[in-house]
Design brief:
By secondary structure, the chain is of the alpha/beta class. The protein is built from seven helices and twelve strands. It has a single domain, classed as Nitrilase/N-carbamoyl-D-aminoacid amidohydrolase.
Length: 273
């Protein structure tokens, strides 16, 4: 076994920069007490999701964001904890909807920009055009953001192509009363894990009024490993065995796929190799 302890911060989000920052540091401290090694926050946790939480044309607080990113990175280094932080980054036009990846040494390793935008996103954000992976605790980790991870299998697939065994999925699916989407979203999350034989960890915002997807950790066989309660703040913590992320379905290795597809009902001599 090669265990890794990960955490998902299912936290409230607002248009108040200071309140969001306080929540980020509160969850960092809570996660440290639980000995979390990698903590993931929801989409746009630093500033609030444009269109619904924040006005689409609100100014980008670039200087404050740079300072907050540095403060979070410094605290991660002090705690020895890695972090995936949903945020935004300025451009000459509309900002990117982004996630920064911070090492347990407190270094900002890089940033991923959401590559696929909903029609609502597109009035407020500029899409990214690359998929990046990062090494944390000796493990290759990918990041896909909300819609891009839900609806476009190729985003997760590209992370796996680059060697990822664990993909984090910051999302924000709470601001409209679309409860019919809950089973659809959950099915998509389990599919992303199962079709690649990887761990898939999806972190959503919470609001007491409505929430259209749980924060969930999905095992490489597509089963729900851990999940948060709906409509309340929660730090979801779980140990995962990275060795289970064989990427067997992605590589389509017949023998490695056999137990995933048939359990113990099919013997090795019954399959083509």
């Amino acid at each position: 076994m090669n265990n890794l302890r990960i955490g998902l911060a299912q936290v409230r989000q607002s248009d108040d920069f200071d309140d969001n920052a306080k929540s980020i540091f509160r969850f960092l401290e809570d996660a440290a007490r639980e000995k979390v090694q990698i903590l993931c926050f929801p989409e746009t946790q630093t500033v609030g999701y444009r269109v619904d939480v924040v006005a689409p044309d609100a100014p980008v607080p670039a200087d404050r964001l740079e300072e907050l990113h540095a403060q979070v990175a410094r605290r991660c280094g002090e705690l020895g904890m890695a972090c995936v932080l949903g945020t935004e980054t300025p451009t000459e036009g509309l900002p990117h909807n982004s996630a920064i990846v911070i090492s347990p040494e407190g270094e900002i390793l890089g940033v991923h920009h959401k590559t696929r935008l909903t029609p609502m996103d597109a009035i407020a954000y500029t899409p990214g055009d690359t998929i990046e992976t990062f090494e944390l605790f000796g493990i290759r980790v990918g990041v896909v953001i909300c819609f891009a991870g839900f609806r476009f299998a190729e985003t997760t697939e590209e992370c796996v192509r680059q060697g990822a065994q664990l993909v984090f999925h910051p999302q924000n699916n709470t601001t409209r009363p679309n409860d019919w989407k809950i089973p659809v979203h959950h099915a998509m999350l389990t599919t992303r894990a199962a079709e690649n034989t990887i761990w898939f960890a999806s972190c959503n915002v919470c609001y007491p009024e409505h929430q259209n997807c749980r924060s969930m950790i999905i095992a490489p066989d597509g089963q729900i490993h851990a999940q948060a309660e709906m409509k309340r703040e929660e730090l979801l913590v779980s140990d995962i065995d990275i060795d289970q992320a064989t990427r067997a379905m992605f590589e389509f290795d017949p023998e490695a796929c056999r137990p995933l597809l048939f359990a113990d009902t099919v013997s090795p001599d019954e399959i083509a190799t």
